[in-house]
């Protein structure tokens, strides 16, 4: 059973590392293309990397500290999810406040 946990958790974590690396490569390629005037953009889905990383860490059979759970923050797609969630939350609060003031 432990072999299956180590194998599955490691595969999910390696997939998350691959997604993070391709996201960073996409950032650098987009910056290079912008300087050259090329309109092509590279990006991975923002949900795939963090979900895979957290799932892999949850499966691995050893004690995890806080630093290990913060490791997926290296992936820029995680930043998009965090910032996007905050922006949507603030927009919904602003809309509710404006609706109450207008009523």
What's the layout of helices and strands?
Blueprint: H1 2-36, H2 48-59, H3 66-70, H4 76-102
Provide an overview of this structure.
The protein has helices at residues 2-36, 48-59, 66-70, 76-102. With 103 residues, the protein is mainly alpha-helical. It has one domain (2-102). Helix 1 (2-36) runs antiparallel to helix 2 (48-59). The radius of gyration is 19 Å and the shape is flat.
Question: Residue-averaged pLDDT, rounded?
Answer: 83
Helix content: over 70%
Strand content: under 5%
Q: N- to C-terminal separation?
A: 60 Å
- How would a crystallographer describe the biggest sheet? none
Helix-strand makeup class: mainly alpha
- Give the overall form: flat
Radius of gyration: 19 Å
The count of helical stretches stands at 4
Order of helices and strands: HHHH
- Low-confidence parts, pLDDT < 50 over ≥5 residues? none
**Whole-number total of structural domains:** 1
Number of strands: 0
Task: Please supply descriptive tags for the structure shown above.
103 residues; mainly alpha
Can you describe this structure in just a few lines?
Helix content is 77%, strand content 0%. It contains four helices and no strands.
